[in-house]
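Section 3.1: Structural characterization of target chains.
Under the original work plan, the team committed to producing a structural model for every single-chain target entering the pipeline before any wet-lab resources were allocated. The record below documents one such target. The sequence was received from the expression subgroup and is listed exactly as submitted; it comprises 179 residues.
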Amino acid sequence: MRPLLAISTAIDRLNEKVGSICNILVLAACVLSAGNAMIRYAFSYSSNGWLEAQWYMFAVIVMFGSSYTFKRNEHVRVEIIYLMLSERGQLWLDLIGTLVFLIPACLLLSYLSWSMFANSYAIGEMSNNAGGLLRWPIKFVLPAGFFMLALQGISEVIKRIAALQGATTIDAKYERPTQ
């Protein structure tokens, strides 16, 4: 179980770093949005590239922030039934839900969106807007984001199995295994 917990810890650290980048991107998107609006109204100048950069940042925040949110146990869940279960029942529900629904759905969506990225990359797709940005880098965010969420799902499965075996407990606030 120790090697699996080491893998889980590595995945958690990766998603913590990605989450930190997403936190910075929130501020960057706000600054870019405010700067774009100020320049547009003060100097009657606007750029499609700036607007698209805002959209791209938002896409990165949503797609990569989901795995960070899942890692921190701050995702949305239906707690009506969950709260009525014992701690062991909650672990089993998390384990089954992650194995049956989350990981397969994320891997399928990552696989299906890969061809969209690959085709865009192959043709060097650009925005149709004047001054727009390349499209293929942002299309990579979709399969990569779903893959990162599936990876975090694997980490959560490892932690739940370890907790069910009594090898570790789960810190409820941050989903960190404790020994």
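The longest strand covers residues 169-171.
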